[in-house]
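[READ THE FOLD]
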Amino acid sequence: MSAIAFFNRHRRILGALMMRELTTRFGREGLGFMWLVGEPLIFCFGVMALWTLTKPEYEHGIRVAPFVMTGYMSLLLIRHHINMSVGALQANIGLLYHRQIKSLHIFLARNGLEFLGTTTAFVVVYVALLAVGEVQLPSDWLLLYAGWALLGWMSMGLGLIMSGLAMRYDLADRLVSVISYAMIPISGAFFMVAWLPAGIRDAYMLIPFPHAIEMVRASVFGEFVETHYDPVYALAVGTVMNLLGLLLVTGAEDKIDVD
């Protein structure tokens, strides 16, 4: 089989699984698949409105609305990847009867949908803030794309790890919501790394997620806002997380009964 034929076969499988996932989750009536974008939009605008009403216009010299946008949308991307990965195989157990469909297809389809939906919501919020003069165009488009893609890459890896552990241990399944909430302080979604004391900053930067969020913020806020990130480190850790997650999931496939 040629590389093109191989790619096209898997592309068709992923496309079909994504359409099935959309129909299963959102149905065909009303807004349907638009909720994939509408749900994160509602939450993001709600949090932005709350912060705008309860906090001063600037936080450490940064406008509150774009700060919340970059933080909360990043947090949603992480949490959605985790929540949609855990239980993905159990929810689609019947699909494994088809010899062409593998567990990796199911994970890629779910994570791909979440990435596309949250990315679209991020663009909509950004355009809305741009229209009212709260933000400017990104100072570095490549940095923005790279940071957002890295965040999705690491989030998928964490989701795969949690899914593989949940397939083995009931306790891991119960800890998913705890870890999801723990990502609020761990990810750095609601504070800048520069705000941390220097003694704590180096240790905190061992966590990979803040690197990607800082990259996004560096592009949105420009060079006049201090940011700290290492894309090579984030990419390396994200790759290890995905490989470990795949090993955990593959090794736990016998835990799921498809007979």
